[in-house]
Structure formats: C-alpha cells, structure tokens
Amino acid sequence: MNYSKQREKILDVLSNNAVHPTAETLLELLKSENANIGFTTLYRNLNKLAQAGIIKKIDGLESSAHFDHNTFEHYHFICEECGKVFDIPANVAPDLVKNTQSATGFDIAGHDIVFHGICIECKQKKGQ
Amino acid sequence: MNYSKQREKILDVLSNNAVHPTAETLLELLKSENANIGFTTLYRNLNKLAQAGIIKKIDGLESSAHFDHNTFEHYHFICEECGKVFDIPANVAPDLVKNTQSATGFDIAGHDIVFHGICIECKQKKGQ
DNA sequence: AGATAAAATGATAATAGTTATCACTTTAGG
DNA sequence: CCTAAAGTGATAACTATTATCATTTTATCT
User: Which domains, ranges and CATH numbers included, belong to chain A?
Assistant: First the structure.
C-alpha cells in the first residue's frame, strides 16, 4: 500500500474525531476540516484499511436482508464460500443479554449475532 | 391486518420451501410456483410480517456500514432513539466462538453482535 | 535528479436493494 | 351490497456503494 495524503487524513479523522461514523459522516467531517476528498476515494480507502485490519467495518456482511420464518431466538452463520445461511442455536451465548444489560444499563430490545467463515461442506470440498 | 392472497402465499413459501431466503430468492420461488407477485408487494408484506413478529428479518439493522478505528474485539449497540452506536465489551459473551465452533464444526473467521434498544441517556430523557 | 512502473485519485456512470407514489382492486363490516 | 379501509403493482425515486478510466502521485531504479 503506497502512502497517500488522503488516506492519512481519513485515518486521522477516524481515530481522533469520530465515533463509529458512516462513510457519509466521515465525508462531512473531512469537509469541515477543509479536506475535500472524493467519496470514491473515501470508500476505496475505508475498504482497503479494513482489509488490512487497520480499521474495522461494522455491518451485516451482506447487502440484502434475509427473512426467516423461525422467530425463535437463534443466530446465523454465513458461509463465505457458498453464501448459505445457517442457523446457530441460541445457547452458544448464555446470559448474553443479561450480561450486556448489567454492563451498560441500556434497555436491550433485541440483538443479532452473525458469524462468518467456512461451513463444513465447503471445508471438506476444499480439503480434497 | 386484512387478509390477502399474496401475503398468504408469501408466508406459505417462506415456511415450506425456503431457508433464509433474500427477497430476490423469494421472488424466484414465488414465480416458480406460478404466483407472480410484484416485488413492491413482497417487500411490503415481508416488512409487515416482520413487524408483526410473524417472521424475522435478519440484517445489520442499518443500511449503511459504520467504521471503527478500534479493531479490538468488541460489539455494538445501536440506540433506536438517537441512532448512536456504542461499544460493548467482548466479555459479555465469553466462549462464544468456542461454543459455536464445537456446536457446528464450522470454521469461524469472524462474528459481529449488534444489539438494539434504548441507551441510558434516551431512557432518562423519556422518563422525564 | 530523471525516468518509469505501480498505485492512488476523483469525476462520472452504473448497480443493487429497497422505499415512495398513486391509480386501481380487494376485503370486511354495517 | 355499499362503502371505507387495506392491499396491489407499475413506475419512479432514493441510498449506499462499486466500476470505469483518464489524470496525478508515489516509489524505485539507475
């Protein structure tokens, strides 16, 4: 990765001024510091920095929502290889809501866990 | 909520044929059963059913990604009132990855937990 | 330094997923 | 069986993001 003025500025704003900003918020922040960076450049750098592990991208991993007839509490796993979504039983995270509630004092209305990785089937295919 | 042929069919396909489909997949499934339902109607009904708690919508809660300079493992809470994103320490879910790995056999590359609800500040404002 | 190849920029256009609009149709209760 | 409320679906709009590509910047190699 080569140096660039723009990327340095983005990282600077991200680490000093901003709390979990969206790309749009970052653009505004940059503008307010007289660093007019094109949104293409911003997105490109955010993705690059996230891939390099320098920043973290928080999203649901996928652009389109999935719908589920099972309203039972359970979580999800998205296979990076085949794209399939698997159910994960809720008991992998006992006391999660209770712990979080007492750690924060927030009222928790709901939560989602999305894992990603390689499912068993794809793992075996790759192994061969 | 009034009855509608289309909604019945959507629910039917969702509960019998489909595993975590996206709206697009549902459209195809419906088409293949000769139920040509407009995508506007599909989206409207999916959202309505999800709001009524009859089905579940799996997504990251928000359409735009957030970026985070803190690459430490931690989770997130989105306040439904003010929209702010808060950090949640990772220790609310001890052994989560280990538990999930042994429950499924999948290779887990990463995961995200997103809570939603009302943050302390908004809770107090509402209380007054 | 000067040449040059690789990487980065940013304006523009494109894409994907979803929601808004609105004239028309269906449903349900008096 | 009439009417108000709810639902439909074609079209257009919108939002967040990625692709394209000519131009500029950076790093490397004499």
Answer: 5-68 (1.10.10.10), 74-126 (3.30.1490.190)
